[in-house]
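Sorry to interrupt, but I need a hand with the structure work. Could you write out one complete protein record for me, on any chain you like? Could you add the entry underneath, on a fresh line?
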Amino acid sequence: MMSEVQVHTVARQMLEQHGLGAIAKAAEQAQACEGRGEADEAREWRHIVDAMKVMRGPHQS
């Protein structure tokens, strides 16, 4: 299980590398893990998705 610091580090790195598309990439990873029956890994990817959403900030309308 990743620590909170690790989750935020991965989230920040993914955002830097992929921009806002990183959220979709992480969500795809979570789905792929679930498809393979890797529930813990899927949970970590969803945690990373949530961290990226917080870093992104609120939606603009």
Notes: The chain has one domain: 4-56. DSSP finds three helices and no strands in the chain.
